[in-house]
Design brief:
This protein is of the alpha+beta class. It has 6 domains: 7-49, no CATH class; 69-137, Nucleic acid-binding proteins (OB fold (Dihydrolipoamide Acetyltransferase, E2P), Beta Barrel); 144-208, Beta Barrel (OB fold (Dihydrolipoamide Acetyltransferase, E2P)); 232-414 and 424-468 and 551-590 and 600-611, no CATH class; 475-548, no CATH class; 630-719, Nucleic acid-binding proteins (OB fold (Dihydrolipoamide Acetyltransferase, E2P), Beta Barrel), CATH 2.40.50.140. The chain has 18 helices and 32 strands. It has a 6-stranded antiparallel sheet. Strands 1-2-3-5-4 form a 5-stranded mixed beta barrel. A hairpin with a 5-residue loop joins strand 20 (426-430) and strand 21 (436-441). Helix 4 runs antiparallel to helix 17 (597-627), helix 10 (446-468) crosses helix 14 (565-578) and helix 12 (508-518) runs antiparallel to helix 13 (524-534). The longest helix is centred in the last third of the chain and has 31 residues, at 597-627. The model is unreliable at 55-61, 726-746 and 748-755 (pLDDT under 50). One of its GO terms (cellular component) is cytosol. It is an enzyme of class 3 (hydrolase). Keywords: Cytoplasm, Exonuclease, Hydrolase, Nuclease, RNA-binding. Residues 721-736 have a biased composition (Basic residues).
């Protein structure tokens, strides 16, 4: 911080900048942190003594349309770190004002959407016209809803953008908050719940054109509450960071470490190297190096950077943007292992034998210099006999040993038999305006698998080291599937004419046998997807329950601290365990980290799920937009799910999921069998089962929600037999109708959750 200014210096600056606010003055003199308190006191004294020209005395807030005591809702921090709010019930002219909140330590942690009863004072001459001093926290805010505003003569309505949500909301005149017809808005319910008719809502924020360029990911970011703006104090800390030097580190710059990433990668947090082991006792074995960006050096416990990274939990990836966990100064620069640049790392040296079994390992804190920044495709092309000017010099000395080590690791993987899912990943390609131009399958190369195997081995080494040193950490946990989900999987498997072992403790090799049965058949993708859905979600925990999917007893995430907070915790644990540096409390695992380890695991596991849902919703909307101009076209697909209300169909070409409503199939009653996952026509006898091939017509597409409605044309290349309803024949007894409706509602929820 600059030297604290004198009164004369302040007055001179104000004379040169007569329109400046108090915050402008503080910024001009570099006032930060705790010094703001003394600086504000100085300005207050100068104001009281009449030394601040043109400053108005504080007025009562009623004069500006604000009551002296009102309810405010926290909107979040501004770029300067001040906590901001808005009045919940604004009746003044123009848009509601922005209010700065002066919270006390006794008020506890306040976050977006918290509501407070607060005393309001006007603050002329400052950035924000009012200041709120909390009296007490009150009940939580009503649930937020996102939708498209449609104006009518009485005000308007909000149409939902959530797939499967049909409820509309009425917006009375005066509650539109300036929203125009067709704009995307955020709103909240007003009035009592449970009333007859459509519920009432008030528009709280106007977000703009939902069809605008790149609006799809913005909808997901807003809808799922993903923090996408860094507070000023976080950016300032990142910008002030300086590159780490060699002091206290092992010099690894002589090693031919290099990075292998996607073509468009910006952050490179892992580098690899394989060297044939010269030890005669380990003939055919390798020495492997995995070097990971030393993010812990820059992101210290309880710093603004750390607080923000923990809140975000991870980076979130969309087809058109990335919402990073760390500011670009770190993620794209100081922590990224760019070519021919010295970078701080935490590295692990591992020895494996010819069959890929790890013999020993050791961690070090070092300084490396990447030999090259390569893309997966270029590395694979070089190995396949087509090196280019960048990969040719590295082919014999660096790339071929990497692939030799990968072959050894692959043999160890086959022996371990982790879950071997084969799920093709689709890549959505956008043009400069954000419009989808194509949907294609991503290439799955040995270069990808090589990096995955190196990272898995390094993650195992990190977990084993910290367990041996009795250092707290966050494990990556993946538990066994529960019996109910396994029964559902067996029903789908049997409906597809395949089998899954029963009556024994389930192991990944049993599932791999099933996947091998399906490989090369029309059911392959369906069985892989059903197997994935039967698995519980992986999560982070301070207790080690093992990793079922990888068939590993000890596993922790260590290799991506730029984009995952869990990895940063593991890095800090390694620093503390090895006592690297003169003061490991500075960037090692802190007491606060340890005390809230369980809480952190829950927090970042929830953040991971939030990102996955946002990414999936974005993909659904982009796929719907891609198909929007093809309504009426015929497409091939496969039934991927069955529910009482209809059939879910995955389209072959795009991978999009659509719904065939049961009402559109025929007039007859259809019997739903949950165990067999079938719908059977009551009079025609036609059976719709998971895995069946179908031809459909694209009937309706709603890009705003990602919804796709389909019309069924053929089943297994045969025209549909048309049954008809005759009286009550084939229908369930009247006393069961309520039960059937309840079951359908339950199935609808389960189906959404599985998608």
């Amino acid at each position: 911080m600059a030297e604290f200014p004198t009164k004369d210096a302040i007055l001179q600056w104000i004379e040169d900048n007569p329109e400046a606010t108090k915050r402008d003055i503080a910024k001009a003199f570099g006032i930060r942190g705790a010094a703001k308190i003394d600086f504000k006191a100085l300005l207050k004294n100068m104001e009281a003594e009449g030394e601040l020209p043109g400053r108005k005395r504080r007025r009562e807030p009623e004069a500006a349309g604000m009551p002296p005591v009102t309810v405010v809702e926290i909107t979040g921090p501004d770029r300067g770190g001040d906590l901001l709010a808005r009045p919940v019930d604004w009746r003044g002219d123009g848009p509601p004002p922005v209010i700065r909140v002066e919270a006390r330590p006794a008020d506890g942690a306040l976050g977006p959407r918290d509501r407070l009863l607060a005393r309001i004072d006007e603050t002329p001459g400052e950035d924000h016209p009012f200041v709120a001093r909390p009296i007490r926290r009150i009940a939580a805010a009503p649930a937020r809803l996102l939708g498209i505003f449609k104006r009518d003569s009485h005000g308007g309505r909000i149409l939902p953008i959530d797939k499967g949500e049909a409820k509309q909301w009425v917006v009375s005149a005066g509650q539109e908050n300036g929203a125009e017809d067709g704009e995307l808005v955020e709103a909240e319910q007003v009035g009592p719940k449970g009333r007859l008719g459509l519920p009432n809502a008030r528009v709280t924020e106007v977000l703009g054109d939902p069809a605008g360029p790149r609006a799809v990911s913005l909808i997901a970011i807003h809808q799922h509450g993903i923090p996408d703006v860094f507070p000023d104090r976080v950016l300032e800390e990142a910008e002030a960071a300086e590159p780490a030097g060699l002091e206290g580190r092992e010099d690894l710059r002589h090693l031919d470490l290099l990075t292998i990433d996607p073509e468009d990668a910006r952050d490179r947090d892992d580098a690899v190297l394989a060297i044939p082991d010269i030890d005669p006792a380990n003939a055919g074995g390798f020495v492997l190096w995995v070097a990971i960006a030393d993010v812990a050096y820059y992101v210290r416990p309880q710093s603004p950077l750390d607080t923000e990274a923990r809140l975000r939990g991870n980076s979130t990836y969309f087809p058109d943007r990335v919402v990073p966990m760390l500011p670009d100064r770190l993620s794209g620069d100081l922590c990224s292992l760019h070519e021919n640049v010295d970078r701080a790392v935490v590295a692990v040296r591992m020895r494996i034998d010819r069959d890929g079994r790890k013999l020993d390992h050791a961690f070090t804190r070092g300084l490396m210099r990447s030999r090259a920044s390569l893309a997966y495709g270029r590395v694979q092309a070089a190995i396949d006999g087509q090196p280019d000017e960048q990969t040719a010099p590295l082919l014999e000395t660096v790339l071929k040993p990497l692939y030799g080590a990968y072959e050894a690791l692959r043999r160890a993987r086959e022996q371990r038999a982790p879950l071997d899912l084969d799920l093709p990943e689709r890549r959505i390609v956008l043009d400069e305006r954000g419009k989808v131009t194509s949907v294609a399958f991503k290439d799955r190369l040995d270069a990808h698998r090589l990096i995955e195997e190196f990272m898995v081995l390094a993650n195992v080494a990190a977990a084993e080291t910290l367990i041996a040193k009795r250092t707290p950490l966050l494990f990556r946990v993946h538990e066994e599937p529960d019996p109910e989900k396994l029964n559902s999987l067996r029903e789908i498997v049997e409906a597809s004419g395949l089998s899954l072992a029963k009556g024994q403790v389930l192991q990944t090799r049993h599932l791999n046998r099933l996947l091998a049965q399906a490989a090369g058949t029309d059911q392959a993708e369906l069985i892989n997807m059903a197997t994935l859905r039967s698995m519980p979600a992986a999560y982070y925990a301070a207790t080690n329950f093992g990793h079922f999917g990888l068939a590993l007893r000890n596993y922790a995430h260590f290799t991506s601290p730029i984009r995952r907070y869990a990895d940063l915790i593991v890095h800090r644990a390694l620093i503390a365990a090895h006592r690297w540096g003169p003061d490991t409390r500075r960037d090692g695992l802190s007491d606060a980290d340890i005390d809230r380890l369980d809480e952190t695991g829950e927090l970042i596991s929830a953040a991971e799920r939030r990102s996955m849902m946002a990414e999936r919703d974005t993909q659904d909307r982009y796929l719907a937009a891609f198909l929007a101009d093809r309504v009426g076209a015929e497409m091939a697909g496969r039934i991927s799910g069955v529910a009482k209300f209809g059939l879910f169909v995955k389209l072959d070409e795009s991978g999009a999921d659509g719904l065939v409503p049961v009402r559109s199939i025929g007039e007859e009653y259809f019997h739903y069998d949950h165990r067999e996952q079938t719908l059977t026509g009551g009079s025609s006898g036609v059976v719709f089962a998971v895995g069946s091939r179908v031809t459909v017509k694209l009937a309706e597409v709603t890009p705003e929600t990602g919804g796709i409605l389909l019309e069924l044309l053929t089943l297994e290349d045969h025209a549909l037999p048309r049954g008809r309803r005759t009286g009550t024949r084939g229908a369930p007894p009247r006393r069961r109708l309520g039960q059937e409706k309840a079951r359908a509602a339950k199935e609808r929820k389960v189906t959404r959750r599985r998608k």
